[in-house]
């Protein structure tokens, strides 16, 4: 069937229509300029009428009579006064002109020319993402009005965008991570790099909010946080993310902060933690912070795979079972940890079968802190021994029921060397230092809602507890008190948190004792003090009489003196 031709006016009259429309627009603008005073006075009279009617309505009925009498008296006085009617009319016109003037000007919060240009650049950059050719009335189109989809916007003092709320069409695939990442990268490029942004997608309302995040405080020192047993503070985060607040003595910074609280114990859904980061990102600082908090309610076994002396300040302290840095010592300590975990499980099972409370020595928390196990496994392989990391399998699998918490820290580039048990059972994850979105998604299981910056201070990163959201975190400054390059105030704060030394510690070790100079370990929850490196089986037989030596194992580990 042949197509019906268009009317002639639509085929040839486009120029005439455009010219006529332009002439009508010019005539309307000219008439508005000429009649502007009349329009202003008329608008003012209307506003005065509305105000008078509102006040008459608000006046109580018992006062309307006197008010009418007063108005009639004033009107009579004006009429009897020479030139009174003329003066009253002039005053009324002046009041109407003043009342009807255009006081709005530019609305409060309206962008200036430069800000409007920035918003238009945002709008034009989003057109390829939020428009399709099949849409008859696109919300985003080249040359369109940016004010329609942009609901709210704020700028900082430097003229850069600080907050932007926009709407997008319902057909946009906001459920696909790739599509959302493309939009976020576009907004990030237009908003300016070097800052952290949070993106909040509201799929139900087809709304996207972008806001600039202030930097987290990096001057909070280690402190005795007011937490309950089984609660450990990993660091501070943004106020909207958590509801609870702590008010630590922050030294240079006071006031409340929002902590990231990690709960451990038999009822915890994520009893073990894995911390990854680049060298110098603050993983050792995080472990020291956790150890100082754990020693308030439990005992700690530390394995320093890097052998850098980061935990020398904890040697011989009350509650510290041992601090090991050699492969043989680490293996012996972890073998004891395996047997201790099994002993706690058996003691708890027998107590429940007998209907009695679980013994105190089986309920006291035990923390196993392992720093850089990959380096330790490499040294053990070079010496012809097994990887001590394999001994963490039992505490990781059964530690939740036995009151044993395992914390592992490793460099991000050595994450592939971690065992399957470590990757599977550490559901609390921390990633410190500069990292990309794919790295965050691989470590934490999902990408954060914020953009990771390229330059961050030590102890800055992200944390995710179980299946919860990804949070920004800043670890409290917990330097080695023997590190002279650290700030003196922060070192003093750590020294105040250190537990006292045990009576069995040799006085010659002093504050500068090394890891292998530690004396006999302290008594832990009723278990006799035994050197777990010299005789790792002695804890299995605490009832041996004095002076009776246990039979040495077939493959005994070398003594501490031989190391």
- Tell me roughly what share of residues is in helical segments: 25-40%
Reported for the largest beta sheet, the result is:
8 strands, mixed
Assigned CATH architecture of the largest domain: 3-Layer(aba) Sandwich
CATH superfamily label of the largest domain = P-loop containing nucleotide triphosphate hydrolases
Shape: elongated
How do the strands of the widest beta sheet line up side by side? 9-8-10-11-7-12-13-14
Strand content: 15-25%
Description:
The protein folds into three domains: 33-59 and 67-100, no CATH class; 113-213, Alpha-Beta Complex (Aspartate Aminotransferase, domain 1); 231-544 and 551-562, P-loop containing nucleotide triphosphate hydrolases (Rossmann fold). Helix 9 runs parallel beside helix 12 (393-402). It is 37% helix and 15% strand. It is α/β, with parallel strands linked by helices and 563 residues long. The chain has 15 helices and 14 strands.
């Amino acid at each position: 069937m042949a197509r019906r031709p268009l009317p002639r006016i639509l085929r040839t009259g486009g120029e005439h229509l455009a010219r006529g429309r332009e002439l009508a627009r010019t005539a309307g603008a000219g008439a508005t300029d000429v009649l502007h005073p009349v329009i202003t006075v008329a608008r003012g009279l209307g506003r005065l009428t509305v105000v008078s009617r509102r006040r008459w309505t608000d006046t109580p009925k018992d006062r309307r009579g006197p008010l009418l009498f007063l108005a009639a008296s004033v009107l009579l006085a004006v009429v009897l006064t020479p030139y009174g009617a003329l003066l009253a009319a002039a005053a009324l016109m002046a009041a109407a002109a003043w009342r009807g003037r255009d006081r709005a000007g530019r609305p409060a919060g309206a962008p200036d020319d430069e800000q409007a240009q920035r918003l238009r650049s945002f709008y034009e950059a989003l057109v390829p993402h939020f428009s399709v050719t099949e849409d008859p009335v696109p919300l985003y189109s080249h040359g369109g009005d940016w004010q329609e989809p942009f609901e709210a916007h704020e700028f900082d003092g430097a003229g850069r965008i600080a907050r932007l709320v926009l709407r997008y069409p319902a057909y946009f695939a906001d459920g696909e991570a790739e599509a959302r990442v493309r939009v976020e990268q576009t907004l990030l490029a237009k908003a300016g790099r070097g800052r952290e942004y949070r993106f909040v997608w509201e799929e139900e309302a087809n709304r996207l909010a972008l806001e600039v995040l202030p930097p987290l405080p990096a001057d909070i020192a280690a402190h005795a946080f007011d937490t309950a047993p089984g609660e450990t503070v990993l660091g501070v985060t943004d106020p909207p993310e958590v509801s609870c607040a702590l008010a630590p003595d922050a030294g240079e910074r006071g006031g409340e902060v929002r902590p990231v609280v990690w709960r451990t114990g038999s009822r915890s859904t994520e009893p073990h933690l894995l911390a990854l980061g680049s060298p110098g990102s603050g993983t050792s600082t995080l472990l020291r912070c956790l150890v100082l908090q754990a020693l308030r309610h439990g005992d700690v076994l530390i394995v320093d795979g890097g052998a850098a002396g980061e935990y020398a300040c904890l040697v011989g302290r009350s509650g510290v079972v041992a601090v090991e840095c050699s492969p043989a010592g680490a293996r012996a300590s972890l073998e004891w940890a395996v047997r201790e975990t099994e002993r706690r499980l058996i003691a708890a099972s027998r107590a429940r079968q007998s209907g009695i409370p679980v013994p105190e020595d089986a309920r006291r928390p035990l923390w196993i802190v392992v720093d850089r196990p990959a380096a330790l496994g490499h040294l053990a392989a070079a010496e012809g021994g097994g990887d001590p990391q394999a001994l963490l399998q039992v505490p990781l699998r059964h530690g939740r029921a036995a009151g044993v918490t395992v914390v592992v820290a490793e460099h991000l580039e050595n994450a592939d060397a971690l065992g399957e048990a470590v990757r599977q059972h550490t559901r609390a994850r921390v990633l410190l230092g500069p990292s990309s979105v794919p790295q965050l998604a691989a470590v934490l299981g999902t990408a954060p809602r914020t953009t990771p910056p390229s330059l961050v201070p030590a102890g800055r990163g992200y944390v995710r507890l179980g299946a919860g959201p990804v949070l920004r975190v800043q670890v409290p400054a917990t330097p080695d008190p023997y590190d002279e390059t650290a700030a003196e105030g922060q070192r003093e704060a750590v020294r105040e948190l250190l537990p006292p030394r045990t009576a069995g510690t040799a006085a010659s070790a002093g504050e500068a004792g090394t890891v292998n100079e530690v004396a006999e370990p302290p008594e832990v929850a009723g278990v006799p003090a035994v050197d777990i490196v010299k005789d790792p089986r002695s804890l299995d037989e605490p009832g041996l009489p004095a002076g009776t030596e246990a039979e040495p194992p077939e493959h005994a580990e070398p003594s501490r003196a031989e190391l």
